[in-house]
Specification:
Helices cover 41% and strands 17% of the residues. The protein is α+β, with helices and mostly antiparallel strands and 508 residues long.
Length: 508
């Protein structure tokens, strides 16, 4: 990766703030466009935060070929209303980052296609921007009609509003309006002083990704504190991540079959999910893995007894999962509702900057476990599955394939544990975790939905001055909108289930 105008670090690395280049905006723009044009590069985070009377902008561009992350920055006086050239004009995946900066700090981006709000943060710059006056896309004609769904849903689901612009039953455009439950998570990382409080916060960013987000947090804190997890702890954390993937994927397959009215598969998959999340309860006392990850160590070491129970669980799971999944994907009545429904193209997913499974089902091999590995993924390589179809079938089939890979991978990790030093440290206390002053750190984790990114900046005392979270759903919600174009509105439920994106992970 060309590094002129920037500096590079590895995933879960820490760097002195003075080593991150501060460029003029013209230099920043030219450097960013140069990086984003390179093959295998994509922006994993771009955000701003107040630093005295200055608004500091940080950009992080990941390069898959050399497993590095380029860092660069620029600054703007807080009260200066100088407009900036929009990167989105030429690199559309930047749209969500620039929209968020505009919403939070009223920074205007020239030639941005639509600076509409992202999540209605409680501390947004313009308090007159409220959900009730959201600027929905309009087509002036009497031949079309609009259908609104939510934010209160009939099922047990998080709040979000979906506005369908239709010609009869055919959807021309779907607009997704979120921001109903902004909790100020990023600010809470600053106001909650104890390490335990912050760890619990990380587990609560998205309830179904407690292991993924807490993995990103504890790795970030360990990097900034100069702590290193030993090999055993790395393996145990990775087992936790892969079990979360298995549990959520099998749950999604069950929910998709409810939408397909295939009761047998929904019952079998739903039944298989329960032992997996119950195993997490046995391991750490919580069905969603809360409590498993702690900075510097763990309260719940993976014992021989736990290994025996997990081996039996995985064997039983696979014995029931494989025939049911094979049957599901062979039934014409199922395939009729999966194939060529909600199809998106590789080019569309590249344009929106899709990550994780949403990228891989459209033949974009984006997987942090492979490109920027951490923990046990460094020594025990992971294979990443991709498909080309880009439809509901691909999103369902990819879950099946990833479950199968994860089953084998967890078994391999358990065998690896038999030859690893059995010592595993206890978690570090708040007084033991001293973060390096005036530093920046980034942590990338491949959650079951995709790329999770946590960034932190410390001040001269070593206190957290800014904390930034990015859930993969931030990139991927637009994929759902694209999936509905030219389909009947009745196809929305199965498409929505096929992505299962996070509302709270987006709203923060």
């Amino acid at each position: 990766m060309e590094t002129k105008g920037c500096t590079t670090i590895k995933n879960q690395g820490t760097i002195s703030l003075r080593d991150v280049p501060v460029l003029s905006y013209d230099e920043f723009y030219d450097t960013m466009t140069g990086l984003l044009r390179e093959t295998g590069c994509h922006c994993v985070n771009y955000y701003a935060y107040p630093q005295g009377n200055t608004l500091k902008f940080m950009a992080c561009v990941a390069s898959d070929p050399d497993a590095s992350v380029a860092l660069l920055s620029h600054e703007l006086p807080i009260h200066e209303k100088k407009p900036l050239r929009a990167l989105t004009r030429d690199f559309f995946p930047m749209h969500i980052f620039e929209r968020e900066i505009h919403e939070n700090f009223d920074v205007d981006f020239i030639d941005h296609p639509w600076l509409k709000p992202v999540r209605y943060a409680f501390n947004r710059a313009d308090k007159n921007n409220i959900i009730d006056n959201y600027p929905f896309y309009q087509i002036e004609t009497k031949e079309l009609h609009q259908v609104g769904v939510g934010p209160i849903h009939a099922g047990v689901i998080e709040p979000g509003h979906f506005r369908f612009l239709c010609n009869g039953e055919t959807v021309l455009h779907l607009e997704i309006q979120l921001g109903w439950q902004h909790r100020g998570i990023e600010n809470l990382f600053l106001s909650k002083p104890s390490l335990l409080q912050r760890t619990v916060l990380s587990e609560s960013i998205a309830g179904d990704t407690a292991v993924g987000h807490s993995s990103a947090f504890v790795s970030l804190m360990e990097s900034m504190a100069g702590l290193a997890a030993n090999e055993r702890l790395d393996i145990e954390r990775t087992i936790g991540l892969e079990l979360e993937r298995i549990a959520m994927h099998i749950g999604d397959l069950g929910n998709m079959n409810i939408g397909l009215a295939y009761q047998l598969a929904s019952s079998v998959f739903g039944t298989l999910r329960t032992p997996v999340i119950n195993y997490s309860q046995t391991w750490c006392g919580n069905r969603f893995g809360k409590g498993l990850n702690r900075v510097g160590g763990t309260h719940y070491p993976f014992t021989e007894d736990l290994a025996d129970k997990l081996t039996k669980l995985l064997d039983n799971f696979e014995a029931h999962f494989t025939p049911m999944a094979d049957r599901m994907f062979a039934l014409p009545s199922v395939l009729m509702r999966l194939e060529n429904i909600g199809k998106v193209t590789q080019n569309q997913m590249q344009l929106i900057g899709a990550v994780g499974m949403t990228a891989r089902m459209a033949n974009i091999p984006r997987d942090i476990r492979v490109s920027h590995p951490s923990g046990a993924y460094k020594k025990c390589g992971m294979t990443s599955e991709t498909l080309e179809a880009g439809d509901v079938w691909a999103r369902a089939m990819l879950r099946k394939m990833e479950i199968e890979v994860s089953l084998d991978y967890v078994r391999m990790l358990m065998k690896k544990l038999e030859h690893v030093d059995p010592f595993i440290p206890k978690p570090a206390g708040t007084s033991e975790v001293r973060l390096a002053p005036d530093t920046f750190s980034i942590s990338l984790i491949e959650g079951w939905r995709g790329e999770i990114c946590h960034c932190a900046v410390t001040d001269h005392r070593g206190d957290i001055a800014h904390y930034k979270v990015k859930d993969p759903s931030m990139h991927n919600w637009f994929a759902l909108a694209l999936s509905l174009r030219d389909l009947e509105i009745s196809d929305f439920p199965i498409n929505n289930k096929s992505y299962n994106l996070s509302y709270c992970g987006h709203d923060l």
